[in-house]
Amino acid sequence: MGQTKLQKFIFTLMMCFCMVLGMTIYNMILNEGFHSNLLNNLLKDFWLGFIVALLLDVFIVGKLAKPLAFKIVKPNKETKQIKIIIAISSCMVVGMVLFMSMFGAIVSSGFTIAALKLYPLCILRNFIMALPLNLLIVSPIVRFSFNKIFPVKLAYK
C-alpha cells in the first residue's frame, strides 16, 4: 500500500508494529501464561523484536515475498485486489515466521543447540497464530487506518 516511498514505509511500520505486538503477546501468554507482570514484560521485550522484524521486513522478507507473491498471483486488470493482498500477506507471514521464530528461539535459549531444537516448534506455534492474525485482524485494521491517513485520490476523466 502507499503511493510514495514514505507512505510505503509508514504502511510497513504499521503492519510490522501490529504483527509484532500481537505475536509478542501470543508468545508471552504461551510461555508465561497470564500474570501481573505481563504488561511490564511486554513493554520491555517488544522493542527489540520490533526492530529486528522491521529490518527483516524492509531488507529481506519484503524483497523476497512480493516477487514470489506476484509469481503465484499474476496481477492484471482482471485480478481481484483481495487475491493480491492474500498472496503478499501469506508470503510475508511465511518469511517472517521463519526468521522471527529463529530470533525467538535464540532470545529464549541463546546461541545454543537448544535454540536449534526449539526452532521447529517455534515455527509451528507462530505460523498457527501469525497467518490468521495477519489476514483476519491486522491487515484489515492497518489497511483501513492507512486509508484514513492517506486517502486515495481518484483521477476523474
Textual characterization of the structure:
- The longest helix has 37 residues, at 113-149.
- The chain has 157 residues and is mostly helical.
- Helix content is 82%, strand content 0%.
- The protein has one domain (5-149).
- Pfam families: DUF2798.
- It comes from Clostridium saudiense.
Put the structure in a nutshell.
By secondary structure, the protein is mostly helical.
Name its key features.
about 160 residues; DUF2798 domain-containing protein; membrane; transmembrane helix; mainly alpha; DUF2798; transmembrane
Uncertain segments are: none
Helix/strand class: mainly alpha
- Average pLDDT level: 93
Distance between the termini: 23 Å
Taking all Cα atoms into account, the compactness measure Rg is 17 Å
Proportion of strand residues: under 5%
Secondary-structure topology with pairs:
Layout (H helix, E strand, L loop, with lengths): L4 H28 L5 H35 L8 H29 L3 H37 L8
Helix pairs in contact: 1-2, 1-4, 2-3, 3-4
